[in-house]
């Protein structure tokens, strides 16, 4: 078995888009958050850790950061649809402006569950920021207020995204295609 790696989105394009999204977030939240009530940025682990780390360093508004662990893929390339959270946010979300940061919205099932949980806990408003969106795989509609790139139905890795927990450290978004030889 051989594996093909093809760069889909370069490091430079990612960096440029992250800066643009950061500026847009700064603009949209400048009047809505303050030192007393900062933006609560919630990263969805593990995939979002790289994007979130780059994005928050573009923010010029007061923010706090939380992480939630979500998993639906296990070691497969297909979502199981069974979204599980570990260590859900324990702090009070009442009246808070919350921004969920994801690496990818695929079927939308993870984000649907996240949005439901955060709204149930009394957040003032919840928005979604995702680096990638795969419309071809959509099972539920998710409003993505801040989006990096829409992509085709290819299995992608890098910049936080994994296959079997590998390749999260790549600096670009890469199409991963295992192929049989011969
Ligand atoms: C991936 C990704 C999203 C979710 C999106 O997480 O990071 O959280 O799947 O898929 P969905 O829209 O079909 O729900 P994964 O379960 O692979 O965990 P990981 O982030 O730890 O790699």
Which key phrases capture this entry?
alpha/beta, 21% helix, six-stranded mixed β-sheet, binds 1-O-pyrophosphono-5-O-phosphono-alpha-D-ribofuranose, 9 strands, 3 helices, 182 residues, 32% strand, three-stranded antiparallel β-sheet
Description:
The protein has 182 residues and is of the alpha/beta class. The chain is built from 3 helices and 9 strands. Helix content is 21%, strand content 32%. The strands form 2 sheets. A 6-stranded mixed β-sheet has the order 4-3-2-5-6-7, with helices on both faces. α1 (11-29) crosses α2. It is globular. 1-O-pyrophosphono-5-O-phosphono-alpha-D-ribofuranose is lined by residues 44-47, 70-73, 79, 102-111, 162.
> What percentage of residues falls in helices of 4 or more residues?
10-25%
Low-confidence stretches are none
Bound molecules: 1-O-pyrophosphono-5-O-phosphono-alpha-D-ribofuranose
Counting DSSP H or I runs of 4 or more residues, the number of helices is: 3
- Give the structural class: alpha/beta
Strand order of the largest sheet: 4-3-2-5-6-7
- Average predicted local confidence, pLDDT: 92
Radius of gyration: 16 Å
Order of helices and strands: EHEHEEEHEEEE
């Amino acid at each position: 078995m051989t594996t093909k790696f093809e760069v889909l989105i370069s490091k430079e394009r990612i960096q440029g888009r992250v800066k643009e999204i950061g500026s847009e977030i700064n603009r949209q939240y400048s009047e809505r958050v303050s030192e007393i009530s900062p933006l609560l940025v919630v990263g969805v682990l593990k995939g979002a850790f790289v994007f979130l780390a780059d994005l928050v360093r573009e923010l010029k508004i007061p923010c706090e950061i939380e992480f939630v662990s979500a998993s639906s893929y296990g070691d497969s390339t297909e979502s199981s649809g069974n979204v599980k959270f570990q260590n859900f946010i324990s702090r009070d979300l009442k009246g808070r402006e919350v921004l969920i940061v994801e690496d990818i919205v695929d079927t939308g099932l993870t984000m649907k569950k996240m949005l439901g949980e955060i709204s149930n806990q009394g957040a003032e408003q919840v928005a979604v920021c995702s680096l990638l969106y795969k419309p071809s795989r959509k099972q539920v509609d998710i409003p993505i207020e801040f989006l990096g790139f829409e992509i085709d139905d290819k299995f992608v890795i890098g910049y936080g995204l994994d296959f079997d927990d590998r390749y999260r450290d790549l600096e670009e978004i890469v199409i991963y295609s295992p192929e049989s030889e011969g």
